[in-house]
Amino acid sequence: MRELDPLLHSQLRLAVVSLLLSVEEADFSYLKDKTQATSGNLSVQIDKLSEAGYIEVKKEIVGKKPRTSCRLTDKGRDALKEYVESLKEYLGKLIS
Amino acid sequence: MEDRKINELESLELISDMIRKTKKGTTMKKDYDTFLIYGYTALITAIITWVIVHFTGRGEAMFTWFAMFIPYFINTFFCKNPKPEVTTYIDSMLGNIWKVIGSMFIFTVIAIVIIGILTHVMNFSMMMPLSLIYAGIGTSMTGLVIKEKVFIWTPLAGLLAAVYMLTEGWCHNYWNILFGMSFLVFMIIPAHIARNKIKE
């Protein structure tokens, strides 16, 4: 059986990647609002996903305020696809 | 939410829950506002132009149609539009559709001016049917993307008016009313219907 990607097999990181799956770009406050995570924790998990190349992080200044936006990369999309396939395989074995 | 390990079933639930959350709240309300702003600008300009031409007989009054660019300039230079928290694929597709439509308007005006300078005949009369066709295509494509039938088919009314104008070939004052009514049918009314659906 395939191993589950340890980077995605964590509640907050999986939530972030899943949120980014169906939008083109989302900013930090949107992700914070939807995941109900603390800023510090979310920042750490975003950095981990970014270092792995799963998401692309853009930091800019908009109207004198810093803005951090994230988008899913092709590598991240493939990783999530692979992760879901592994989950299906695992659950399929449990049922049969 | 924390950085904790989850089991396989929780993972699947979390993925579907997050995807569901992105669907919620990404309404088109703001874009319907844009439809209403341009729709009403067209309708009001049409009526004003018709009244001026009717009572003064001065064809130069047709230049009031440049008022159609006012919402664009106000939005670009005077409104502070903060970047949205989230950009969906639909948002960016619609943005690109209207960028292309907007460019078609601008290039048509530029082409008419250049041709006018070269031929010494500045004839903006074709701008009206072409605008109906361009705006109609944009509205129809928007309707297809957001799956809103009322936007998809109503631009046919504008297309009918545009074909009628093109076959006539020369601008008459009632074209203003025809133009304004077309925008009422394919932009203002559908936008109100769609907004009411959101409220419900």
Termini Cα gap of chain B: 32 Å
Shape of chain B: elongated
Query: Helix count of chain B?
Result: 8
Helix content of chain B: over 70%
The computed structural class of chain B is mainly alpha
- CA-atom Rg of chain B in angstroms: 21 Å
CATH homologous superfamily caption of chain A: Winged helix-like DNA-binding domain superfamily/Winged helix DNA-binding domain
Across the major sheet of chain A, the strand order is 1-3-2
For the sheet with most strands of chain B, the description reads:
none
Sheet-strand content of chain B, in percent, reads under 5%
Helix count from the secondary structure assignment of chain A: 4
N-to-C order of helices and strands of chain A: HEHHEEH
Count of folded domains of chain A:
1
Say what the CATH topology of chain A is.
Arc Repressor Mutant, subunit A
- In total, how many beta strands of chain B? 1
User: Can you tell me the residue ranges of chain A where pLDDT is under 50 for at least 5 consecutive residues?
Assistant: none
**Helix proportion of residues of chain A, in percent?**
55-70%
- Poorly predicted segments of chain B: none
- Total beta strand runs of chain A: 3
Mean of pLDDT of chain B: 87
Averaged pLDDT of chain A, please?
90
